[in-house]
Amino acid sequence: MRVLAVYGSLAAGCALVVGGCGEQSALEPRSDAARTIETLWWWMFAVACVVIGGAVVLLLIAWLRRSRPGFPLLGEREDVATGVVVLFGIGIPGVALVALFAVANFAALDETEAPDPRTTAMTIEVTGNQFWWEVRYPGTTAVTANEIHIPARTRVNVVARTNDVIHSFWVPQLNRKIDMIPGQANRVLLYADEPGRYRGQCAELCGLAHAQMGMYVYADPPDEFRAWLDRMSGPRQAPATDAARKGERVFMNEACADCHTIRGTPARGEVGPDLTHLASRSTLAALVIPNDREHLGGWINDPQDVKPGNRMPALGLSEREVADLLAYLRSLG
Ligand code: CUA
Prior knowledge:
Blueprint: H1 2-19, H2 32-64, H3 78-112, E1 122-129, E2 132-136, E3 143-145, E4 147-151, E5 156-162, E6 167-170, E7 178-180, E8 186-190, E9 196-202, E10 214-220, H4 222-233, H5 242-253, H6 256-259, E11 283-284, E12 289-290, H7 293-301, H8 303-306, H9 319-330
Helix pairs in contact: 2-3, 5-9, 7-9
This protein binds dinuclear copper ion (CUA).
């Protein structure tokens, strides 16, 4: 019974992995490139099922006939035994792997290749950092982090770089992974059939918080995208309340400004994300926590508790200072 329960939960787990990831599932593609990958995935899955099914049947036959010598029908000859081993151990796996390689190479690689820049409408630059993503829109002053906006139904050329170690940019519903390699710029196409939110994840072990290096791609209707980009290109909204003005002073006088940039202020740090429009993002710490007052406060007070290994230190600010800082940061829409 216990064995059955273990297999039951394993099967349920697999079903969840295969079908249930929703906004981060390669099996719910929202672009031609991702559909090609999905097709390839199903072919590989089908071939793997046939191969493992065949192996299980052979094992079963061997077990059922364990007290009788030789093969069923084929008898006991040595050369027949060798032939069976060569066929099932080398022949069939060889053919299956070569066929899958050919399909992957000729179908999936072409479709998911770095796009010809003449075929894309715009370029964005995404840079991997331990453990967050910086996003720039060349030709504008917009800089944001972890939440990438693109226009829907538009071919977007993504230039992927890294500031430190190797990361891998992966939005499974839209395209394949692309590694971010030190000293090199790689490219991948982002295209979404329809407006929506697509989750991505760093797909290369890059340190302690690798698993907490998520990102969202928002595909907006083109008008909304242009309005968003205009807003992101501007400087910060000047603080309008007393608390926010005090909070801005705390930000400039404490170490915050050494690591973060807020355009329109003297803060020019480049260690952490650009916070000019922080309040417009829906999450913090690369999707680890929602961007609300309570979570932002917890993050400022003890960043290592929220996301161990990230580079932000606790500054030991007073309750008053944190409250003013929150008023300020929450006003940066
Ligand atoms: Cu960045 Cu894993």
